């Protein structure tokens, strides 16, 4: 079953609570929250107070993607604000294994994200320790970018690694440039969690857009 996680980066920020309720009504499975710090990526978005403010607007899980330097310094604030699962970037952690376990100790599923130029082989030492891999299919920082085709090769490599190590339960998420066409490609290559910003929030019918992606 494919999980659809609309990214609120493409929502109307002046109506964030209502926008989240709209995607819940439209059939979304998770709410994808892109946290950007202006350092790891060249953009700034939400911090813990905003996440806390919208937490009560929905029962959907908050899938928090930390595009921030040194996530170990603030991840507990995101958990306290209402994150249900946390994804950190391999490139942003000096002690990836330690940071993974800081999240696991709080009882949350952990994802590790890879930028487009980071090879999946770097995940080998931690694959047994995580719940999800996020293959970035654009360079992180902005919505509305075009899907990077080499992502398909990375997804296939990751699926083979997971199968070889009997880790087929690990979720494989993709994020960036996902629409009806690219959704078919990434699902075929092994992704089971699709993040989509523009393809959902800018669609005339959000329920229809989610159902097409699924
Ligand atoms: O994290 C990011 C970008 O850094 C994504 O979540 C985008 O928000 C996806 O937007 P679309 O490419 O689907 O419009």
Automatic annotation (TrEMBL):
InterPro entries referenced in this protein's UniProt entry, alphabetically: Aldolase_TIM, Ribul_P_3_epim, Ribul_P_3_epim-like, RibuloseP-bd_barrel
Pfam families: Ribul_P_3_epim
EC number assigned by the record: 5.1.3.1
GO molecular function, one term: D-ribulose-phosphate 3-epimerase activity
Binding, substrate: 7, 65, 141-144, 175-177
Catalytic activity: D-ribulose 5-phosphate = D-xylulose 5-phosphate
Cofactor needs: Zn(2+); a divalent metal cation; Fe(2+); Co(2+)
Residue numbers binding a divalent metal cation: 32, 34, 65, 175
UniProt keyword list: Carbohydrate metabolism, Isomerase, Metal-binding
Pathway(s) per entry: Carbohydrate degradation
Xref: PROSITE patterns: RIBUL_P_3_EPIMER_1, RIBUL_P_3_EPIMER_2
UniProt-annotated catalytic positions: 34, 175
Superkingdom of the source species: Bacteria
Co-factor note (free text): Binds 1 divalent metal cation per subunit.
Family, per entry: Belongs to the ribulose-phosphate 3-epimerase family.
Free-text function comment from the UniProt entry: Catalyzes the reversible epimerization of D-ribulose 5-phosphate to D-xylulose 5-phosphate.
Protein name: Ribulose-phosphate 3-epimerase
């Amino acid at each position: 079953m494919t999980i659809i996680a609309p990214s609120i980066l493409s929502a109307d920020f002046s109506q964030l609570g209502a926008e989240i309720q709209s995607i819940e009504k439209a059939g979304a499975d998770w709410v994808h929250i892109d946290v950007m710090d202006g350092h790891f990526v060249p953009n700034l978005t939400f911090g813990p107070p905003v996440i806390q403010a919208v937490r009560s607007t929905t029962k959907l899980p908050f899938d928090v993607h930390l595009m921030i330097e040194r996530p170990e310094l603030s991840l507990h604030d995101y958990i306290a604000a209402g994150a249900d699962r946390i994804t950190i970037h391999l490139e942003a952690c000096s002690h990836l294994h330690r940071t993974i376990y800081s999240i696991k100790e709080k009882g949350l599923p952990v994802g590790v994200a890879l930028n487009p130029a980071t090879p999946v082989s770097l995940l080998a030492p931690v694959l047994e320790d995580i719940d999800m891999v996020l293959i970035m299919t654009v360079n992180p920082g902005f919505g509305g970018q075009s899907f990077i085709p080499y992502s398909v090769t990375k997804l296939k490599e990751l699926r083979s690694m997971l199968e070889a190590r009997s880790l087929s339960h690990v979720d494989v998420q993709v994020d960036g440039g996902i629409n009806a066409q690219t959704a078919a490609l990434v699902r075929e290559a092994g992704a089971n969690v699709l993040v989509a910003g523009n393809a959902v929030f800018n669609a005339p019918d959000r329920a229809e857009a989610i159902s097409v992606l699924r």
